[in-house]
Amino acid sequence: MMNYSVKTFYFSATETTKKIATGIAGKLAESFVDGRVVNVDFTLPDARKEPASFAENDIVIAGLPVYAGRVPNVLLKYLNAVEGNGAMAVAVVVYGNRHYDDALMEWRDILESRGFNVIAAGAFIGEHSFSRILGGNRPDAQDMLRVMEFAKMIHQKLTASQNAMETVSVPGKKPYRPYYRPKDKDGNPASILKVVPKTSDDCIHCGLCASLCPMGSVDVNDESIITGICIKCCACIKNCPVEAKYFDDENYLWHKQELEVAFASPRREPEWFL
């Protein structure tokens, strides 16, 4: 057994990325001395106040959701302050059955630039933030079997390869493609950046949405008030116990429908690179 510390480092508003990252880490940790995993979850604003720092004997399963084919731009300032200090990293992205475009390459490059040795990378599928149809209920049992397989292959690389520390090659383009842009019903580019969720009279003022918002944008005293940006993670919508949160913007709903028509099938499968 090797003397590494296994850690996760992830952003996961609706817990799909968390499930993948912790799944890989848990299986990988079985091969190491103490078998434990330390989770570094930077989903909520308080967790991003200070940059994370890792050590040379760490193996970090670093997970992000794909936003419009790229690393979420709202996280770039925080991610570009993380300190790798020679730790090994596994770059993981999770997307909603459309495509991960350049997100995996971009995430690998960020990790490398911050002092990590990226020894493996994977793209997995999770339920799309906008939808319950795109990648619905994923990662599912089949996905988690692939997670276990990926973890075993990472362990094999660490034990058998003389080149374990070499930067992993992943698909993607440079310069990175622009963020995927939605269109309106007439096919014209449409921005949904300023669109925010609405709150119906069914709201019971439990405050759950405010506690879950990764941008801290839901007013804790009045859940119908959005005080900051909305990244459309839909944590508030998918977790509301009375389904009081919803979007009614025409361009947002059209974009959601277009995605569901175009990308609900075929089922995409995980890919990894070692």
- Low-confidence runs of at least 5 consecutive residues: none
Count of distinct strands = 8
Order of helices and strands: EHEEHEHEHEHHEHE
Q: State the major sheet.
A: 6 strands, mixed
Overall structural class, as computed from helix and strand content, comes to alpha/beta
Count of DSSP helices?
7
How would you characterize the overall build of this protein?
- There is one protein chain.
- The protein is an alpha/beta fold and 274 residues long.
- The protein is 27% helix and 16% strand.
- The chain contains seven helices and eight strands; from the N terminus they run βαββαβαβαβααβαβ.
- It has helices spanning 16-29, 76-79, 103-113, 141-160, 208-212, 235-239, 250-263, and strands at residues 5-10, 37-41, 58-65, 88-95, 117-125, 198-199, 245-246, 271-273.
- It has a six-stranded mixed sheet, with helices on both faces. Strands 6-7 form a two-stranded antiparallel ribbon.
- Helix 3 (103-113) links the parallel strand 4 and strand 5.
- Helix 1 (16-29) crosses helix 4.
- It is globular, with a radius of gyration of 19 Å.
